[in-house]
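[Q] Does anyone have a clean C-alpha coordinate version of this?
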Amino acid sequence: MTDLTRPRGALRTLPALPSLRRTAARIDAVTPVERDRAVDALRALAICGVVLGHWLVTALVADGSALRTASPLQHMDRAVPVSWIFQTLAVFFLVGGHVATRGWAAARDRGTPYRRWLAARMSRLFRPVAAVVVVWTVAAVLLLLTGAEYATVRTLVKLALSPLWFLLVFAALTAATPLLTRLHPLWPLVVVLHVDLLRFGFGGPSWLGWVNLAAGWLVPYTLGAAWTRGELDRRRAGRFLLVGGAAVTAGLVAWAGYPASMVGVPGAAVSNLDPPTLAAVTFGLAQCGLALLLREPLRRAMRRPVAWAAVALANLSAMTIFLWHQTALMATTATALLAGRLPGLHTRPDGLDWVAARLAWLPVFTLVLAGCWAAFRTYEHGGGRRRSRVVRAHRPGVRRTSGPRVGA
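[A] Here you go.
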Protein backbone atom coordinates (compact mmCIF):
# COMPACT_ATOMS: atom_id res chain seq x y z
CA MET A 1 0.00 0.00 0.00
CA THR A 2 1.14 3.54 -0.50
CA ASP A 3 2.87 5.17 2.44
CA LEU A 4 0.42 7.23 4.45
CA THR A 5 1.01 10.13 6.78
CA ARG A 6 0.89 9.25 10.47
CA PRO A 7 1.23 12.29 12.75
CA ARG A 8 0.74 10.12 15.84
CA GLY A 9 2.00 12.46 18.51
CA ALA A 10 -0.16 15.29 17.25
CA LEU A 11 -3.23 13.06 17.11
CA ARG A 12 -2.89 11.94 20.72
CA THR A 13 -3.01 15.56 21.85
CA LEU A 14 -6.15 16.40 19.88
CA PRO A 15 -8.53 16.38 22.89
CA ALA A 16 -6.14 18.48 24.97
CA LEU A 17 -5.76 21.34 22.50
CA PRO A 18 -8.43 24.03 22.66
CA SER A 19 -7.90 25.21 19.12
CA LEU A 20 -8.10 23.51 15.74
CA ARG A 21 -5.44 25.91 14.48
CA ARG A 22 -3.06 24.92 17.26
CA THR A 23 -3.58 21.25 16.40
CA ALA A 24 -2.99 21.98 12.73
CA ALA A 25 0.13 23.95 13.55
CA ARG A 26 1.47 21.03 15.60
CA ILE A 27 0.88 18.57 12.74
CA ASP A 28 2.54 21.01 10.36
CA ALA A 29 5.52 21.41 12.69
CA VAL A 30 6.26 17.67 12.92
CA THR A 31 6.10 17.16 9.16
CA PRO A 32 9.58 16.88 7.57
CA VAL A 33 10.32 19.82 5.31
CA GLU A 34 11.38 17.51 2.47
CA ARG A 35 8.02 15.75 2.31
CA ASP A 36 6.16 16.28 -0.98
CA ARG A 37 2.75 17.20 0.40
CA ALA A 38 1.21 17.22 -3.07
CA VAL A 39 1.51 13.42 -3.12
CA ASP A 40 -0.57 13.16 0.06
CA ALA A 41 -3.07 15.69 -1.24
CA LEU A 42 -3.58 13.76 -4.48
CA ARG A 43 -4.07 10.53 -2.55
CA ALA A 44 -6.63 12.16 -0.27
CA LEU A 45 -8.49 13.63 -3.26
CA ALA A 46 -8.56 10.20 -4.93
CA ILE A 47 -9.99 8.51 -1.82
CA CYS A 48 -12.60 11.24 -1.33
CA GLY A 49 -13.56 10.98 -5.00
CA VAL A 50 -14.19 7.23 -4.73
CA VAL A 51 -16.23 7.63 -1.53
CA LEU A 52 -18.40 10.47 -2.81
CA GLY A 53 -18.82 8.78 -6.17
CA HIS A 54 -20.17 5.61 -4.60
CA TRP A 55 -22.46 7.54 -2.28
CA LEU A 56 -23.89 9.50 -5.20
CA VAL A 57 -24.40 6.74 -7.77
CA THR A 58 -25.23 3.73 -5.57
CA ALA A 59 -28.88 3.31 -4.66
CA LEU A 60 -30.61 0.51 -2.76
CA VAL A 61 -34.24 0.52 -3.80
CA ALA A 62 -36.79 -1.05 -1.45
CA ASP A 63 -38.83 -3.58 -3.41
CA GLY A 64 -41.25 -4.95 -0.85
CA SER A 65 -39.08 -6.32 1.96
CA ALA A 66 -36.03 -6.69 -0.29
CA LEU A 67 -33.34 -4.25 -1.38
CA ARG A 68 -32.03 -4.20 -4.93
CA THR A 69 -29.16 -2.25 -6.45
CA ALA A 70 -29.90 0.68 -8.74
CA SER A 71 -28.17 3.81 -9.98
CA PRO A 72 -29.23 7.28 -11.10
CA LEU A 73 -26.99 6.68 -14.12
CA GLN A 74 -29.62 4.20 -15.34
CA HIS A 75 -32.34 6.84 -15.50
CA MET A 76 -30.68 10.25 -15.88
CA ASP A 77 -28.24 10.95 -18.68
CA ARG A 78 -27.51 14.28 -16.99
CA ALA A 79 -25.92 12.37 -14.10
CA VAL A 80 -23.15 10.87 -16.29
CA PRO A 81 -20.63 13.71 -15.59
CA VAL A 82 -20.69 12.63 -11.94
CA SER A 83 -18.76 9.53 -13.03
CA TRP A 84 -16.17 11.72 -14.74
CA ILE A 85 -15.53 13.75 -11.59
CA PHE A 86 -15.58 11.05 -8.92
CA GLN A 87 -14.09 8.00 -10.65
CA THR A 88 -10.58 8.78 -9.43
CA LEU A 89 -8.94 5.35 -9.20
CA ALA A 90 -6.38 6.21 -11.89
CA VAL A 91 -5.00 8.97 -9.67
CA PHE A 92 -4.75 6.52 -6.78
CA PHE A 93 -2.75 4.08 -8.93
CA LEU A 94 -0.57 6.95 -10.19
CA VAL A 95 0.31 7.98 -6.65
CA GLY A 96 0.66 4.35 -5.58
CA GLY A 97 3.12 3.59 -8.35
CA HIS A 98 5.10 6.74 -7.58
CA VAL A 99 5.39 6.05 -3.85
CA ALA A 100 6.01 2.30 -4.23
CA THR A 101 8.83 2.70 -6.75
CA ARG A 102 10.35 5.48 -4.68
CA GLY A 103 10.06 3.37 -1.54
CA TRP A 104 11.58 0.33 -3.21
CA ALA A 105 14.53 2.40 -4.46
CA ALA A 106 15.13 3.71 -0.93
CA ALA A 107 14.83 0.20 0.56
CA ARG A 108 17.29 -1.17 -1.97
CA ASP A 109 19.74 1.63 -1.17
CA ARG A 110 19.48 0.74 2.52
CA GLY A 111 20.01 -2.94 1.78
CA THR A 112 16.50 -3.94 2.90
CA PRO A 113 15.55 -7.35 1.46
CA TYR A 114 12.63 -7.44 -0.96
CA ARG A 115 10.72 -9.87 1.27
CA ARG A 116 10.87 -7.53 4.24
CA TRP A 117 9.94 -4.48 2.19
CA LEU A 118 6.96 -6.29 0.67
CA ALA A 119 5.80 -7.70 4.01
CA ALA A 120 5.66 -4.21 5.50
CA ARG A 121 3.55 -2.90 2.62
CA MET A 122 1.21 -5.89 2.52
CA SER A 123 0.69 -5.72 6.26
CA ARG A 124 -0.56 -2.14 6.05
CA LEU A 125 -2.71 -3.03 3.05
CA PHE A 126 -4.48 -6.09 4.45
CA ARG A 127 -4.68 -5.58 8.23
CA PRO A 128 -7.94 -3.61 7.98
CA VAL A 129 -9.47 -6.18 5.60
CA ALA A 130 -9.82 -8.82 8.30
CA ALA A 131 -12.14 -6.61 10.34
CA VAL A 132 -14.41 -5.93 7.35
CA VAL A 133 -14.63 -9.61 6.41
CA VAL A 134 -15.36 -10.75 9.98
CA VAL A 135 -18.00 -8.08 10.63
CA TRP A 136 -19.83 -8.77 7.38
CA THR A 137 -19.64 -12.54 7.81
CA VAL A 138 -21.29 -12.22 11.22
CA ALA A 139 -23.80 -9.66 9.90
CA ALA A 140 -24.78 -11.89 6.97
CA VAL A 141 -25.36 -14.90 9.22
CA LEU A 142 -27.44 -12.87 11.68
CA LEU A 143 -29.52 -11.33 8.89
CA LEU A 144 -30.29 -14.74 7.40
CA LEU A 145 -31.13 -16.23 10.81
CA THR A 146 -33.53 -13.37 11.52
CA GLY A 147 -35.45 -13.92 8.29
CA ALA A 148 -33.89 -11.42 5.89
CA GLU A 149 -34.27 -12.34 2.24
CA TYR A 150 -31.27 -14.02 0.70
CA ALA A 151 -31.28 -11.61 -2.27
CA THR A 152 -31.08 -8.63 0.10
CA VAL A 153 -28.23 -10.14 2.12
CA ARG A 154 -26.36 -11.01 -1.07
CA THR A 155 -26.75 -7.44 -2.36
CA LEU A 156 -25.47 -5.94 0.90
CA VAL A 157 -22.48 -8.28 1.21
CA LYS A 158 -21.54 -7.81 -2.45
CA LEU A 159 -21.52 -4.03 -2.07
CA ALA A 160 -19.66 -4.14 1.25
CA LEU A 161 -16.89 -6.36 -0.08
CA SER A 162 -16.69 -4.80 -3.56
CA PRO A 163 -13.71 -2.57 -2.59
CA LEU A 164 -11.61 -5.71 -2.09
CA TRP A 165 -11.11 -6.25 -5.84
CA PHE A 166 -9.12 -3.02 -5.90
CA LEU A 167 -6.88 -4.19 -3.08
CA LEU A 168 -6.05 -7.45 -4.82
CA VAL A 169 -5.00 -5.66 -8.00
CA PHE A 170 -3.07 -3.04 -6.04
CA ALA A 171 -1.32 -5.75 -4.00
CA ALA A 172 -0.29 -7.62 -7.16
CA LEU A 173 1.17 -4.47 -8.74
CA THR A 174 2.93 -3.58 -5.50
CA ALA A 175 4.49 -7.04 -5.33
CA ALA A 176 5.70 -6.63 -8.93
CA THR A 177 7.16 -3.14 -8.32
CA PRO A 178 10.82 -4.17 -8.76
CA LEU A 179 9.91 -5.48 -12.23
CA LEU A 180 7.85 -2.42 -13.13
CA THR A 181 10.23 0.40 -12.26
CA ARG A 182 11.41 0.71 -15.88
CA LEU A 183 8.30 -0.45 -17.73
CA HIS A 184 7.02 2.19 -20.15
CA PRO A 185 3.27 2.90 -19.76
CA LEU A 186 2.85 2.49 -23.52
CA TRP A 187 3.24 -1.30 -23.30
CA PRO A 188 0.27 -2.04 -21.02
CA LEU A 189 -1.73 0.56 -22.99
CA VAL A 190 -1.04 -1.43 -26.17
CA VAL A 191 -2.27 -4.59 -24.40
CA VAL A 192 -5.54 -2.86 -23.45
CA LEU A 193 -5.97 -1.63 -27.04
CA HIS A 194 -5.54 -5.12 -28.51
CA VAL A 195 -7.77 -6.79 -25.92
CA ASP A 196 -10.59 -4.35 -26.71
CA LEU A 197 -10.00 -4.75 -30.44
CA LEU A 198 -10.38 -8.53 -30.11
CA ARG A 199 -13.42 -8.26 -27.81
CA PHE A 200 -15.42 -5.55 -29.54
CA GLY A 201 -13.99 -5.47 -33.05
CA PHE A 202 -13.65 -9.19 -33.81
CA GLY A 203 -16.21 -10.69 -31.44
CA GLY A 204 -13.68 -12.36 -29.16
CA PRO A 205 -14.69 -14.05 -25.91
CA SER A 206 -15.75 -11.73 -23.08
CA TRP A 207 -13.29 -13.32 -20.64
CA LEU A 208 -10.45 -11.66 -22.59
CA GLY A 209 -11.50 -8.40 -20.93
CA TRP A 210 -10.14 -9.58 -17.61
CA VAL A 211 -6.63 -9.26 -19.00
CA ASN A 212 -7.29 -5.52 -18.74
CA LEU A 213 -7.83 -5.80 -15.00
CA ALA A 214 -4.05 -5.91 -14.68
CA ALA A 215 -3.02 -4.14 -17.89
CA GLY A 216 -5.48 -1.26 -17.46
CA TRP A 217 -4.29 -0.30 -13.99
CA LEU A 218 -0.68 -0.92 -14.95
CA VAL A 219 -0.88 2.18 -17.14
CA PRO A 220 -1.29 4.76 -14.32
CA TYR A 221 0.89 2.67 -11.98
CA THR A 222 3.81 2.75 -14.41
CA LEU A 223 3.14 6.44 -14.99
CA GLY A 224 3.82 6.79 -11.27
CA ALA A 225 7.14 5.03 -11.78
CA ALA A 226 7.93 7.47 -14.62
CA TRP A 227 7.13 10.30 -12.19
CA THR A 228 9.68 8.83 -9.77
CA ARG A 229 12.28 8.73 -12.55
CA GLY A 230 11.70 12.43 -13.19
CA GLU A 231 10.24 11.90 -16.66
CA LEU A 232 7.01 13.77 -15.88
CA ASP A 233 8.46 16.85 -14.17
CA ARG A 234 7.79 19.22 -17.06
CA ARG A 235 4.31 20.70 -17.31
CA ARG A 236 4.04 19.74 -20.96
CA ALA A 237 3.87 16.07 -19.88
CA GLY A 238 0.78 16.81 -17.80
CA ARG A 239 -0.77 18.89 -20.57
CA PHE A 240 -0.14 16.16 -23.15
CA LEU A 241 -1.76 13.49 -20.96
CA LEU A 242 -4.74 15.69 -20.08
CA VAL A 243 -5.52 16.91 -23.60
CA GLY A 244 -4.60 13.69 -25.39
CA GLY A 245 -6.41 11.42 -22.94
CA ALA A 246 -9.55 13.56 -22.98
CA ALA A 247 -9.60 13.78 -26.79
CA VAL A 248 -9.15 10.04 -27.29
CA THR A 249 -11.80 9.24 -24.67
CA ALA A 250 -14.28 11.60 -26.33
CA GLY A 251 -13.59 9.95 -29.68
CA LEU A 252 -14.07 6.45 -28.27
CA VAL A 253 -17.40 7.43 -26.72
CA ALA A 254 -18.64 9.36 -29.77
CA TRP A 255 -17.54 7.04 -32.57
CA ALA A 256 -16.52 3.65 -31.14
CA GLY A 257 -19.60 2.97 -29.03
CA TYR A 258 -18.01 3.01 -25.58
CA PRO A 259 -20.32 4.00 -22.69
CA ALA A 260 -20.10 7.62 -21.59
CA SER A 261 -20.22 6.63 -17.92
CA MET A 262 -16.82 5.85 -16.43
CA VAL A 263 -18.36 3.53 -13.82
CA GLY A 264 -20.55 0.47 -14.19
CA VAL A 265 -24.28 0.97 -14.67
CA PRO A 266 -26.61 -1.84 -13.53
CA GLY A 267 -28.16 -3.55 -16.53
CA ALA A 268 -25.80 -1.99 -19.10
CA ALA A 269 -24.37 -4.30 -21.76
CA VAL A 270 -20.82 -2.92 -21.35
CA SER A 271 -19.10 -1.46 -18.30
CA ASN A 272 -16.06 0.78 -18.65
CA LEU A 273 -14.77 -0.36 -15.28
CA ASP A 274 -15.65 -4.04 -14.86
CA PRO A 275 -13.21 -4.90 -16.43
CA PRO A 276 -11.45 -1.68 -17.52
CA THR A 277 -11.88 -0.74 -21.16
CA LEU A 278 -9.66 1.36 -23.38
CA ALA A 279 -11.98 4.33 -22.75
CA ALA A 280 -11.53 4.00 -18.98
CA VAL A 281 -7.74 3.84 -19.41
CA THR A 282 -7.51 6.86 -21.69
CA PHE A 283 -9.82 8.74 -19.35
CA GLY A 284 -7.44 7.77 -16.53
CA LEU A 285 -4.56 9.21 -18.54
CA ALA A 286 -6.42 12.53 -18.70
CA GLN A 287 -6.98 12.41 -14.94
CA CYS A 288 -3.30 11.65 -14.35
CA GLY A 289 -2.33 14.59 -16.55
CA LEU A 290 -4.57 16.88 -14.50
CA ALA A 291 -3.08 15.49 -11.29
CA LEU A 292 0.43 16.23 -12.52
CA LEU A 293 -0.56 19.79 -13.42
CA LEU A 294 -2.03 20.27 -9.93
CA ARG A 295 1.18 19.37 -8.10
CA GLU A 296 2.52 22.89 -7.69
CA PRO A 297 -0.84 24.47 -6.74
CA LEU A 298 -1.33 21.68 -4.19
CA ARG A 299 2.15 22.19 -2.74
CA ARG A 300 1.32 25.86 -2.21
CA ALA A 301 -2.06 25.04 -0.70
CA MET A 302 -0.53 22.47 1.65
CA ARG A 303 1.68 25.15 3.20
CA ARG A 304 -1.42 26.21 5.11
CA PRO A 305 -1.42 24.23 8.36
CA VAL A 306 -5.19 23.66 8.47
CA ALA A 307 -5.31 22.33 4.89
CA TRP A 308 -2.30 20.11 5.53
CA ALA A 309 -3.77 18.76 8.78
CA ALA A 310 -6.96 17.74 6.98
CA VAL A 311 -4.97 15.93 4.28
CA ALA A 312 -2.70 14.29 6.86
CA LEU A 313 -5.66 12.98 8.85
CA ALA A 314 -7.34 11.64 5.70
CA ASN A 315 -4.16 9.80 4.72
CA LEU A 316 -3.77 8.46 8.24
CA SER A 317 -6.95 6.39 7.83
CA ALA A 318 -7.24 6.11 4.05
CA MET A 319 -7.68 2.32 4.09
CA THR A 320 -10.28 2.45 6.86
CA ILE A 321 -12.26 5.11 4.99
CA PHE A 322 -12.05 3.17 1.74
CA LEU A 323 -13.08 -0.18 3.21
CA TRP A 324 -15.96 1.06 5.37
CA HIS A 325 -17.61 3.76 3.26
CA GLN A 326 -19.97 1.29 1.57
CA THR A 327 -20.88 -0.12 4.98
CA ALA A 328 -21.80 3.37 6.15
CA LEU A 329 -24.12 3.75 3.15
CA MET A 330 -25.78 0.38 3.66
CA ALA A 331 -26.08 0.64 7.44
CA THR A 332 -27.89 3.95 7.04
CA THR A 333 -30.15 2.59 4.29
CA ALA A 334 -31.05 -0.64 6.09
CA THR A 335 -31.66 1.02 9.46
CA ALA A 336 -33.77 3.82 8.00
CA LEU A 337 -35.98 1.25 6.27
CA LEU A 338 -37.60 0.71 9.67
CA ALA A 339 -39.16 4.16 9.22
CA GLY A 340 -40.55 3.28 5.78
CA ARG A 341 -39.40 4.06 2.25
CA LEU A 342 -37.47 7.31 2.50
CA PRO A 343 -36.60 9.53 -0.50
CA GLY A 344 -32.95 9.42 -1.47
CA LEU A 345 -32.45 6.09 0.31
CA HIS A 346 -35.07 3.59 -0.76
CA THR A 347 -36.80 5.22 -3.72
CA ARG A 348 -36.08 4.85 -7.42
CA PRO A 349 -33.19 7.17 -8.45
CA ASP A 350 -34.88 8.66 -11.47
CA GLY A 351 -35.23 12.38 -10.89
CA LEU A 352 -33.78 15.56 -9.45
CA ASP A 353 -35.88 15.08 -6.30
CA TRP A 354 -33.90 11.90 -5.61
CA VAL A 355 -30.62 13.76 -6.20
CA ALA A 356 -31.61 16.51 -3.76
CA ALA A 357 -32.64 13.96 -1.15
CA ARG A 358 -29.42 11.96 -1.60
CA LEU A 359 -27.32 15.10 -1.13
CA ALA A 360 -29.17 15.69 2.15
CA TRP A 361 -28.21 12.18 3.29
CA LEU A 362 -24.46 12.68 2.69
CA PRO A 363 -23.83 14.20 6.17
CA VAL A 364 -25.54 11.17 7.72
CA PHE A 365 -23.33 8.79 5.73
CA THR A 366 -20.32 10.81 6.90
CA LEU A 367 -21.33 10.50 10.55
CA VAL A 368 -21.83 6.74 10.25
CA LEU A 369 -18.47 6.43 8.50
CA ALA A 370 -16.90 8.42 11.34
CA GLY A 371 -18.33 5.83 13.72
CA CYS A 372 -16.80 3.02 11.66
CA TRP A 373 -13.52 4.92 11.64
CA ALA A 374 -13.54 5.26 15.44
CA ALA A 375 -14.27 1.56 15.86
CA PHE A 376 -11.84 0.09 13.33
CA ARG A 377 -9.01 2.56 12.65
CA THR A 378 -6.64 0.72 15.02
CA TYR A 379 -6.59 -2.25 12.64
CA GLU A 380 -5.00 -0.02 10.02
CA HIS A 381 -2.35 1.22 12.41
CA GLY A 382 -1.45 -2.13 13.94
CA GLY A 383 -2.61 -1.05 17.38
CA GLY A 384 -0.36 2.03 17.30
CA ARG A 385 2.73 0.06 18.22
CA ARG A 386 4.74 0.61 15.06
CA ARG A 387 6.70 3.70 14.26
CA SER A 388 6.37 4.48 10.59
CA ARG A 389 8.84 5.69 8.04
CA VAL A 390 9.14 9.08 6.46
CA VAL A 391 8.21 9.33 2.82
CA ARG A 392 10.94 11.43 1.36
CA ALA A 393 10.32 13.43 -1.79
CA HIS A 394 13.23 13.20 -4.19
CA ARG A 395 13.31 16.86 -5.02
CA PRO A 396 16.64 18.56 -5.63
CA GLY A 397 17.80 21.30 -3.35
CA VAL A 398 15.39 20.52 -0.51
CA ARG A 399 16.71 20.89 3.00
CA ARG A 400 16.44 17.87 5.29
CA THR A 401 15.64 18.20 8.92
CA SER A 402 16.74 16.35 12.01
CA GLY A 403 13.71 17.47 13.97
CA PRO A 404 10.51 15.59 14.72
CA ARG A 405 9.19 13.42 11.92
CA VAL A 406 5.76 12.66 10.65
CA GLY A 407 5.55 8.96 9.98
CA ALA A 408 4.46 7.71 6.58
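[Q] Thanks! Anything notable?
[A] The chain has 18 helices and two strands.
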